[in-house]
């Protein structure tokens, strides 16, 4: 099992992995290590042949307070390191070089969030209490979202003088489908409470508390894990592709994918199981070495 400094990764049940944000004393604020480890973690999980579903949660009293302010300060140039120096002069006032540095960091953060979407295994994001800023952007990249009755979502980037740029403003509007409300939430920074989030389609379940939420998530993960992993991987790829392409392109993508996938053994196993009314066991996916 991979070990991380800011994440707690484990095997909940056969074929079901857990990932928990694990900086509880800092309210799971996203620091430099966490951004790097999120990407590494979900890329690693995507290579595990026995992984069929992932439950994402957080340790401590809230899901996350968003980006660690010290990380913001570093990007803004308030902290200078030896790497920022060139000869006897610093690059801190060089707009071009500083811009490229910000671009590099920003792409790393974007890639971290996209790693959830690019992971071919379904991810159930379970948020309790506050899910702020980068947290909302993170769960927007997941497949299924649950929240506790005391939970809330909030865009707070405006309060630190920036527009969110790691995926939330690209994914969140497509999930809820209400441009007026999206803009209200983003421009005002007000809290989005559970019942409203449920009504909008951001979440599919509002749970009594964190324990109840995680138990519900495991039940759903077990249902997913019992299905053909080939079918599940394909379905996630189709859904993601269709979101960003027209119907004709999406149909072509789907049939091209299934040209190979339908020649596998999973469909035959599923049909035999249905005819005999017996439980079907599917082979694990191959471990990726890439």
UniProtKB/TrEMBL annotation:
Gene3D superfamilies: 2-enoyl-CoA Hydratase, Chain A, domain 1 (3.90.226.10), Lyase 2-enoyl-coa Hydratase, Chain A, domain 2 (1.10.12.10). It is found in: Peroxisome. GO terms for cellular component: mitochondrion; peroxisome. One of its GO terms (molecular function) is delta(3,5)-delta(2,4)-dienoyl-CoA isomerase activity. It comes from the Eukaryota. The keyword Acetylation applies. Pathway: Lipid metabolism; fatty acid beta-oxidation. Pfam families: ECH_1. Coiled coil: none annotated. InterPro entries: ClpP/crotonase-like_dom_sf (IPR029045), Ech1-like (IPR045002), Enoyl-CoA_hydra/iso (IPR001753), Enoyl-CoA_hydra_C (IPR014748). GO terms for biological process: fatty acid beta-oxidation. Keywords: Acetylation, Fatty acid metabolism, Isomerase, Lipid metabolism, Peroxisome. Belongs to the enoyl-CoA hydratase/isomerase family. This is Uncharacterized protein. It comes from Aplanochytrium stocchinoi.
């Amino acid at each position: 099992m991979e070990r991380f400094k800011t994440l707690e990764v484990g095997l909940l049940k056969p074929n079901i992995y857990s990932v928990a944000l694990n900086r509880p004393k800092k309210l799971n604020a996203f620091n430099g290590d966490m951004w790097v480890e999120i990407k590494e973690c979900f890329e690693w999980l995507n290579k595990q042949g026995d992984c069929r579903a992932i439950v994402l949660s957080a340790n401590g009293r809230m899901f996350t307070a968003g980006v660690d302010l010290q990380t913001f300060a570093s990007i803004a140039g308030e902290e200078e390191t030896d790497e920022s120096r060139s000869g006897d002069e610093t690059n801190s006032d060089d707009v071009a070089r500083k811009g490229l540095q910000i671009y590099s960091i920003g792409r790393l953060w974007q890639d971290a969030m996209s790693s959830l979407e690019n992971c071919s295994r379904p991810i159930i994001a379970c948020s309790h209490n506050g899910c702020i800023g980068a947290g909302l952007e993170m769960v927007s990249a997941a497949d299924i979202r649950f929240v506790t009755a005391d939970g809330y979502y909030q865009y707070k980037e405006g309060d630190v003088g920036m527009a969110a740029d790691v995926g939330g403003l690209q994914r969140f509007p497509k999930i809820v489908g209400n441009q007026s409300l999206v803009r209200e939430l983003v421009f005002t920074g007000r809290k989005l409470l559970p019942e409203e989030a449920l009504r909008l389609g951001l979440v599919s379940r509002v749970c009594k508390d964190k324990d109840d939420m995680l138990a519900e998530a495991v039940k759903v993960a077990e249902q997913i894990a019992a299905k053909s992993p080939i079918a599940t991987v394909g379905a996630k790829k189709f859904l993601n592709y269709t979101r960003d392409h027209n119907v004709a392109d999406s149909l072509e993508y789907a049939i091209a994918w299934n040209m190979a996938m339908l020649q596998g053994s999973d469909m035959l196993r599923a049909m035999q199981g249905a005819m005999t009314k017996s439980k079907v066991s599917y082979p694990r996916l191959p471990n990726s070495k890439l």
